[in-house]
Design goal:
Elements (H helix, E strand, L loop, with lengths): L8 H11 L4 H21 L12 H13 L5 H21 L25 H13 L6 H12 L3 H5 L6 E2 L4 E5 L5 E5 L2 H13 L21 H15 L9 H13 L4 H8 L9 H14 L6
Antiparallel strand pairs: 1-2, 2-3
Helix pairs in contact: 1-2, 2-4, 5-6, 5-9, 6-8, 6-10, 10-12
GO biological process, one term: DNA recombination
Keywords: DNA integration, DNA recombination, DNA-binding
GO molecular function: DNA binding
């Protein structure tokens, strides 16, 4: 299906960026979700263009069925797209552009509560070593893997890093996270060394380019680009775990910190979690490891 812009697209994205302070990556996710919704509505119900006042709950329900059966989206992905629609129609209601909200009656799909996937210390070392061995100077991929694993930053946060976000002399990185909230994350000696080596050979297309991590054309690397590099590095490291994505390096970082004795409130601050309940899931992960270890007790 060809991309279809949705009504009041610019106003809505401006609202997300300015009033809600969302990152470029998050705003792009909203835009992409709403484009998919609009495409389906035009294809199946409104060939002359989507009419907001004629949208009903049945249309949104059809969208959810389409996501499941034709796009094979899991429950979590469908819930995220439904959340995008909720935000959009709430905005339209506030602005007086619609009188009714077709999403209001719909509830999230129940999802299985899966524990986070993460790499062990050995697997993390293999990933870092592969990024170094199969990379050429200035070892960009090696620096990226170290940043992701050491800081636990989100993919969008790393892609959005600018040169003035780094202070290698004082060894910290400034991150603008969800809700436009800023946090400072200390950098280890090895991560600083990897970044310094990469930055010394960094080749931007434009001398005014501020992005830390660049693609082969010398421009800011994309989310998709990082995921492809990660996938290739996993293959080279012999890692074939299910559900393994760049985001799982964030889980790996916090699980390793917890296992090393770092307390939950500190991990919460490093992660940029608004609520400590988001951090507590890593306790379940470590408890699973403890239970597994205890199962090997010689007394049975």
């Amino acid at each position: 299906m060809k991309e279809e812009s949705f009504p009041y697209q610019q106003e809505f994205t401006d609202y997300l960026e300015i009033e809600r302070g969302l990152s470029d990556g998050t705003v792009e996710g909203y835009r992409r979700d709403l484009n998919i919704f609009t495409q389906l509505m035009v294809r199946e119900f409104f060939p002359q263009g989507m009419i907001l006042d004629q949208l009903e709950t049945k249309h949104v329900r059809r969208f959810l069925v389409y996501l499941k059966k034709e796009r094979s989206n899991d429950a979590g992905t469908r819930n995220r797209k439904l959340a995008s629609l909720r935000s959009y129609f709430s905005f339209l209601e506030i602005q007086g552009y619609v009188e009714s909200n077709p999403v209001q009656q719909l509830k999230n799909v129940k999802t299985a509560k899966l524990l986070p996937v993460f790499l062990t210390k050995d697997e993390s070392d293999r990933l870092i070593n592969a990024a170094r061995m199969h990379n050429k100077p200035p070892y960009r991929d090696y620096a990226m893997m170290r940043v992701l694993l050491q800081t636990g930053c989100r993919l969008d946060e790393m892609v959005s890093l600018n040169l003035d976000s780094l202070n290698l002399e004082d060894r910290y990185m400034r991150i603008i996270g969800k809700g436009n909230k800023e946090r400072m994350i200390p950098l280890t000696d090895k991560t600083c060394a990897a970044l310094a080596e990469y930055l010394a050979g960094r080749l931007p297309e434009d001398k005014n380019e501020q992005a830390v991590f660049l693609n082969q054309r010398g421009r800011r690397i994309s989310h998709r680009g990082v995921q492809l590099i990660f996938n290739q590095t996993c293959k080279e490291a012999g890692l074939n775990k299910e559900r393994l994505t760049v985001h799982k390096l964030r889980h790996t970082c916090f699980t390793m910190l917890l296992n090393a004795g770092v307390d939950l409130p500190t991990i919460k601050d490093i992660a940029g979690h608004e609520n400590i309940s988001s951090t507590e899931i890593y306790v379940h992960v470590t408890q699973r490891e403890i239970r597994s270890a205890m199962a090997k007790h010689p007394l049975g």
